[in-house]
Protein 1
Amino acid sequence: MKRILLIILATLALSLAHVPHARAQAVVAHIDLSTQSMEVWVEGWRRYTWPVSTARKGYRTPVGTFHPYRMHRRYFSRKYDNAPMPYAVFFHKGYAIHGTNDLRRLGRPASHGCIRLHPENAKTLFSLVSEFGRSNTEIVITR
């Protein structure tokens, strides 16, 4: 009986080691450029998977690991004709994750390099980063 209990506990412990890349941060937003998708992990658990739009041909979305450095609920791009960027989370130079009204292009490259989300999803991510803090949030972008 004791041995069975130990096996169950060991199995449970192994199952709790479920997300190796999310262990250090409370919130991890993983953007996969090849699938045009974002997974959001909260305290080690995958909570959301969303379609995104990243850089179209002729532009680039930076690849790497970043932390947010600035956030705005309402923001308008000075560089691109005051384009609305709701729930903007800036993570590298002028690049941000933000909402878009161009919903039909989510899931394929369409931006100048930012990561576009459905506005409700951008609001959810913005709220998570606000709740857990920028220093406890990691943005991981892979090809």
Protein 2
Amino acid sequence: MKTMRVLARAALIAASILTVTTAQAAQPAGVKRTDLQRHDLSVSGREAVQVRVDLAPGVAFGSHTHPGEEIIYVLAGTLEYDVEGKPPATLKAGDVLFIPAGTVHAAKNVGDVTASELATYIVEKGKPILTLVN
């Protein structure tokens, strides 16, 4: 029984390391995504995920979607969001944005300092948090 617990812990640690390494490798230059928290919701099959996203000046994060809603709060800098079906929106620190589930969108730092956002996702559990769109 003790051996089983040790093996289970080792497997969890290895999976965590591989997940972090894969996520960091997929980030474009000038973009830093920091996972802050992830929790199951009272709605079956859904979870809440919070991520801090930092973009260097002039850097864009290309078109992508999420398997649920995204709620954005701009922490610092100036970001331009291109959300499918809407005109581009330029947001500064303190501004918010709601992006419906599955909506194609992109973001770009249009300022001269690092821009940061707090992204909160309400998503389907077990699906990739982000899918790039060509």
Protein 3
Amino acid sequence: MDRLIHATCFRRLQGKTQLYPGFESDFFRNRLTHSLEVASVARSIASKLNSREKFLANMPINLDIVEFAGLAHDLGHPPFGHQGEYELDSLMRQHGGYEGNAQTLRLLTKIEKKGFVDVDDSQFNGNGDQRKGLNLTARVLASILKYDNIIDEKRLTDEDAVKQGKKIKPVKGYYHFDDGLVKKIKSDCGGNELDSKFKTIECQIMDVADDISYSTYDLEDGLKAGFYTLQDIVFPKQKLLKEISEQIQLELPNGDIFKPSPEAVGEILQNLFSEFLFQDFQGTHIKDLDSAFSYLNRQYSIINSYSHNGYQRNFLSSSLVNRFIEGVKFIPNKKFPAQSRVVLTDDILGQVEVLKKFTYISQVLSSRLKVAEFRGREIVREIFKTVSADGGCELLPHDFRNYYESVNADKKRIVCDFVAGMTDRYAIEFYARLKSENAETIFKPL
């Protein structure tokens, strides 16, 4: 835990976008505050399971590993959120791709400056790369392996994808050159069932906590930012309901597929928030025009309070988080205890998924954020292409330049590591040094 907290990549999370660009306001969450919340929710889930499940009595879930997973799960995110991720993946598709979870593993096992391997170990790159990152145990590293899937070394370029009418997104998994490392992690953690994906109990708890945090705390930020009101959530437009319905196709713990109709999405949202919207109206009877206006006035006050009253927003988010944590279900695995399952019950999972999609469509896909995302992608693309060009390595900071010139690894991967590690502000400043007529002073270190 201490190694992570003192690591450079952890500090940089404070300068990386969660939903809104960091320069907008210090109030809104960034990747660091989001990670702290995920770690807190994950620890609460693990504590609850330890106290409730008899199966865990003699081998309780390690709270420190669970908390580590929550703190570390977003380390690999580049500047400018998922749009930065999409752009780097587009640039790296013929060189192993780019994906946030894969980059997290690379950061923890290679890039972070803590130690080196003593000998040439085949689990690390066979090209002279002797870095060992934070030198963590296999069980700790397993806690951030969300996707048991190898990312192909070469995939479709944007041009080929357009020709074939395909839309390409980053592939969730780990880089092909980390396959040996992942196999060793699996082996050291007790192996894996052949018919299932490898995912330790700590990683599953982190994943559930991430979904809970994303669906509630990002929703709270959206209320504060004015993207919607509580009434917009409970009575959304039909187009929004349809978009949410189309984006959800989720396999439930029992193997069924959860794909709600637009009408079912609307019912889930209404059931989730009705107690907050109508909490003061039990037994209310509208008898005349005065009582009707009184009712509407009180209704408007409640709706307004969730956007402008911090107490009400905190009450809303904490109530939802508590409800979702209560919906956590434990499924023991006697043969592979480390891979016992932690999931949400079907009804809670449906609620969380609908809220996630509502937040994503209402905010991330809005035109206000699209402008910022377009600019972010351009900045990432221009920095990458400039540094990747002939002689571009001379623009790198000394440590990256020395590494770039001393190894036989794919040079683009090193450039990718450099760009991915940037905060939003540092990327903007670096871009300004390259392109702006009002560049930063040369005496400010890179």
